[in-house]
Amino acid sequence: MFSEGQREQHSSDRGFTMVELVIALTVLAIGIVGVVGVMNSTFGVTARSNQRARAVSVATKEVEATRSVSWAQLTASTGQLDQHDDGSYHVTKAVTASADGVAKDVTVDVAWNDGAGYHDVRQSSKVYPGGLGPVGATATAASTGTLAPPSALMATVPTDNAGGTVVDLSWTNPIQENPADSSLEVVWSIDHFATFQTVTDSLFHRASGLRVTGLSAGTTYEFKVAALSAAGTLSSWSPVATVTTASAAGTACTYGTASVSPSAVRQAVSLWQLEQTVTVSVNTTGNCSGLRVTYQPNPASTTQTLLLTKQGGTGVWTATIPWVSGLTWSPGQHQLTLLDALQAPQGSLTLTVCRCGAPTCA
What is the mean pLDDT of residues 58-79? Predict the structure, then answer.
């Protein structure tokens, strides 16, 4: 027999019964299922938010990419673009004429499908010619079918141009003669347009001036402007405007050793070109730009001008005499004259051309 105290101690040592344990596990399982459900829902919301954020990024990228297309090539059309993000998105872009008659409306639709269904993001933007932004309503004169170029082109170096790398252009614009969907093309050259660089081919057709940056200091540039239709037809060019950029502050250009390699070369077997490639090289120090060399292959030919290219961050300028169809070299000594950016002589070199098949050439 147990005393009263012993019975109380024996009762407190019994632990949980099977029924109590099952009830406890059931309550715990219900709690875990609820937490898992909340976590799954949270993960789903996060994934969909990330997909939507990426879709917005894709749409923004496509809209901004449209602004890098020249105005003449940005034609009204609708087309499906390549898929993005490993095929997760289907991207469609449409370009249509704006109601104001000046801008073009760009609409990009980015669609995708996930476990929650079909979704899409759409962005729209207006693109104006020349990046000039919104303009008021304008009256467009009927086109005569012939584009008219700007006239009275002037090029000046602005007084606020400390580095000597900026030129301001201005011209008279025949805006009543060119259609609203045309643009202006501006080019420059430093070799009388034997070669040229395009500044822009999508300038707003009503523009009457442009600031050109990124030029070389102390260099003579020639500019000209033409009208460009939406179909890519170019008008005649404006008169050429010539200007010399200001010299950059710092060390003046100094010319060092100049060489032509090889210094003697035979005529080729056919066409009387040169048998070997001839390279002109000039060492310089200081702020140099626009170096060139002139030469005359034969007494009856015109003088040829060759631009030299600076090699990386060094002061070495080089150029290779090109093969020119129909231009023959006569035997004898040929003088190559080195010119600076202002076409002032800075030295000369001698290239000896020997007859084809000559046993020696020196």
Answer: 67
The CATH H-level superfamily of 254-354 is Macroglobulin (MG2) domain (2.60.40.1930)
Q: In what order do the strands lie in the sheet with 77-80?
A: 77-80, 90-97, 104-114, 117-127
Same fold, 151-244 and 254-354: yes
Asked if 155 and 242 count as a contact pair (C-beta separation under 8 A), the reply is: yes
CA distance 210 to 69: 19
Q: Which of 13, 123, 28 is nearest to 66 (CA)?
A: 123
CATH code reported for the domain at 151-244: 2.60.40.10
What's the confidence (pLDDT) of residue 95?
Answer: 75
Give the model confidence (pLDDT) of 250-289 as tens digits.
Answer: 567 888 889 999 999 988 876 678 888 899 999 988 778 8
90: which DSSP letter? E
Torsion sign (Cα): 23, 28, 34, 37: negative
CATH architecture of 48-131: Roll (3.10)
pLDDT digits (tens, 9 = 90+) for 202-257: 888 778 888 888 888 778 899 999 988 888 888 889 999 999 887 765 567 888 88
Using DSSP bridges, classify how beta strands 345-354 and 264-266 pair: parallel, antiparallel or unpaired.
Answer: parallel
Q: What three-state secondary structure class fits 221?
A: strand
Those residues whose C-beta lies under 8 Å from the C-beta of residue 320, and which sit 6 or more positions away, are 277, 278, 279, 280
Q: What pLDDT was estimated at residue 336? A: 93
Q: Where are the domains of the chain?
A: 48-131, 151-244, 254-354
Please, which residues have CB within 8 angstroms of residue 82's CB and are 6 or more apart in sequence?
A: 91
Residues of the chain with pLDDT > 70, as a percent, come to 73
> Could you tell me if 241 and 150 are in contact, meaning their C-beta atoms sit under 8 angstroms apart?
no
Q: How many helices (H) and strands (E) does the chain have?
A: 2, 20
The predicted pLDDT at position 275 comes to 85
